Amino acid sequence: MTVDQVGSRSDDDRVDAAVRSVRAAAGDRLVLAPERTAGDEFQLLLDDAGAALDVAFALSRAGGWSVGIGIGDVEEPLPESTRAARGEAFVRARTAVERAKEVPEHVAVEIADDRRLRTADVEPLVAQTVRARERRSPEGWELADLVHAGHSRTEAARLLGITPQAVAKRWTAADLRSDDAVRSALVRLLTEADQPG
């Protein structure tokens, strides 16, 4: 993945905070840790589709980032530093981040030509999911965070100090019913996209 700060010339450098966010989202699924590569840009390497989505969605939610996901081979043996890593996945991530700067979602996917799926098979669904999440209200995110932390809707109502009926309304408005199912489907698609054709 290659990530570039949006509007960095008119904003503070937020790379260090974003790197911390990426580490939190990916956890122990990082293959090569995020490293600043130039200016307000950084790269990281993952081999887990779920981790890639979690990172992309976390950066998208924070706002102010263009995110490029590249799928392809990586030269081995892997170096210790992300900056020293090479391969088609990095080339594709560079192309993706440049395209991400031009689309409203600021997220793009580029898949190597020798893979089972094409960019057009995956990217529109990732973009649609990002758009759906961008429409979620702060109250919807509050509920989503509690549910994803393992709380039931009843527990969430108690923690939020609202009625179960209010939780049900937030649940529907935030479209949380399909959230996990859509993420799981995208994980399967990205995993398949990384298989040689």
Describe this structure in words.
This protein has 8 helices and 5 strands. It has 197 residues and is α+β, with helices and mostly antiparallel strands. The chain has a domain at 2-116. It has a 5-stranded mixed beta sheet. A hairpin with a 2-residue loop joins strand 2 (30-38) and strand 3 (41-46). The chain is globular and about 55 Å long. The mean pLDDT is 95. It comes from Curtobacterium caseinilyticum. One of its GO terms (molecular function) is DNA binding. Keywords: DNA-binding. This is DNA-binding protein.
Topology:
Blueprint: E1 2-5, H1 15-26, E2 30-38, E3 41-46, H2 49-62, E4 65-71, H3 88-100, E5 107-111, H4 119-134, H5 138-148, H6 153-160, H7 164-173, H8 179-193
Parallel strand pairs: 4-5
Antiparallel strand pairs: 1-3, 1-4, 2-3
Helix pairs in contact: 1-2, 4-8, 5-7, 6-7
Features:
50% helix; 16% strand; DNA-binding; 8 helices; globular; DNA-binding protein; DNA binding; alpha+beta
- The radius of gyration computed from the alpha-carbon positions, rounded to a whole number of angstroms, is 18 Å
Question: Biggest sheet, in brief?
Answer: 5 strands, mixed
Percent in strands: 15-25%
| Distance N to C terminus | 22 Å
Taken in chain order, the helices and strands follow as EHEEHEHEHHHHH
Number of helices: 8
Uncertain runs are none
Kindly state the number of beta strands. Answer: 5
Spatial strand arrangement across the major sheet: 2-3-1-4-5
Q: Kindly state the percentage of residues in helix.
A: 40-55%
Categorize the overall geometry: globular
Please tell me the overall pLDDT. Answer: 95
Structural class of the secondary structure composition?
alpha+beta
Protein name: DNA-binding protein
GO molecular function, one term: DNA binding
Keywords: DNA-binding
